[in-house]
Amino acid sequence: MAGAAHIHSSDDARRLAKRRLPWMVFDYIDGAAGRETGAARNRAAFDAITLDPRILRDVSQRSLAVDLFGATAQRPFGIAPMGMCNLSAPGADLMLARLAAKYQIPHGVSTVASTPMEQILEVAEGHAWFQLYFSGDGAGTFKLAQRAKDAGYQTLVMTVDVPEVGRRPRELRHGFKMPFVIGPRQFVDFALHPRWSLSQLAAGKPQMANFEMDGYDFDRTESRARAVWETLRRLRDLWPGQLVVKGVLNVDDAVALQQAGVDAIQVSSHGSRQLESAPAPITMLPKIRAAVGPDMPLFFDSGLRSGEDVLKAFDCGANFTFFGRTLQFAIAAAGEQGLHQLWDVITQELSSAMAQTGRASLLKD
What we know:
single chain, alpha/beta, TIM Barrel, eight-stranded parallel β-sheet, two-stranded antiparallel sheet, 14 helices, 10 strands, about 45% helix, Alpha-hydoxy_acid_DH_FMN
């Protein structure tokens, strides 16, 4: 698509996506909790971090590869779990899966993905992690975990920062619901964005594909507040592979998770979509690193927009990072070509920043 040539930054991808997506869909992807001061706080915290330029170091041969659970990821950033990605464009889930396979990086497969977890894992050539929400009384949750285990997933990501779905006014004003409820307002919105609407009509309405299984009815608004430490212990007993806990912003919680035997902790504010008054995750990352020590794998997401942001996260203690909504914007802007264009932009930004700061590698000493 011609639009891919116009993507030179994450901001470009967002700007193009805003023009092409229905207002309801754009605000669902882009929105944050409350008045969105949490998202602004996180961006301000990133912008306040500076990098230290170094000179006269041989950085002519730079590697962006890092170790990840005993394997080599070709980039130090992966794909965060995002619900209903196919709203950005039909087939978006599988575009992300192909990207994961190409660069041997994890594709976080959301509980509320638009494509069955088995198909994504196959297309990603095994480079997929299943993200799990606890919901209701937990019966369906453990069925999903068992299904992921049976499908061949090696890494499970338990997301713990959604005891209740956060209030995101932009999304609520549009009446966003899954499955869609089409009223006059939504009809006008879709009619004014015919390219998106026609492509979705041709592909079929996006579904929450992982719930098409016996004994499990999913309600996006159902309370997830019953998850407790015993839930984690049960999941640890069930899951033989790597167990990551995502959505951690408290030092004491991080230490308790380390003691509970999880394999990695993901510092995250859910993209500022849950608690408006939460601290900026990038400010908590070095505190959590200091508390858990140098050997505990720490992952990071929330607010990453560039390769320089990735380097800042590594400087603050991350072992790996994840991009989220900005990848959906690239897909909405220019399809799979747009996704690869933005991926290349982030790669170039990181490589250049490494050169400017005198680094040939991100591997920890």
